[in-house]
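ERR on first pass: missing label on line 2. Operator R.T. fixed the label and resubmitted. Corrected input:
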Amino acid sequence: QSALTQPPSASGSPGQSVTISCTGTGSDVGGYIYVSWYQQHPGKAPKLMIYDVSKRPSGIPDRFSGSKSGNTASLTVSGLQAEDEADYYCSSHAVTNSAYVIFGGGTKLTVL
Amino acid sequence: QLQLQESGPGLVKPSETLSLTCTVSGGSISSVGSHWAWVRQPPGKGLEWIASVYYSGTTYYKPSLKSRVTISIDTSKNQYSLKVRSVTAADTAVYYCTREEASTSFDWGQGTLVTVSS
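pass 2 clean. output:
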């Protein structure tokens, strides 16, 4: 059950768009719609930004969007703002001999 | 508004058992469709899902931790608990309790730091 693979870092200037990838296998990302993305600011609890691949919880701006192709999910942040600078984690439902949840290693997003 | 609050010792000795409780307020732990989970984060590192439990008592565990971890639920107290046995320094982390639906943590507690040290 290795963690889902995310790039350790990503960056963009204010107003630009940035995409963060999350690669798994057919036993997790590729096999289910239950892929989520969380934002975490330093010293704070994570906050759900995207669930079921592309759905946004109430209150999350539409600048945040999610997608999936095969075993790779992606989070795109459009119109980057300073407050978007944070760590981002993907997660997925996973099944080997039993069901569980697996997280990605996290991506530090820097707004230049 | 649903609130989750972790509680338990902040310091545990190596080889002993780490025990944490999550108290749920503003909603019922017996809510259909909600699973109750624990997620941890070692200092400076990423998130790790540990286990989840349904009000019926059905449990799910991360395979690599299953032999050392027990999650349980007490619907009468609106609480659920985590026990991690035979802890080492690698179990030092901020432990979060969360409310899950379909493998997604919609609500999070503030987290509690547990340090394993003699």
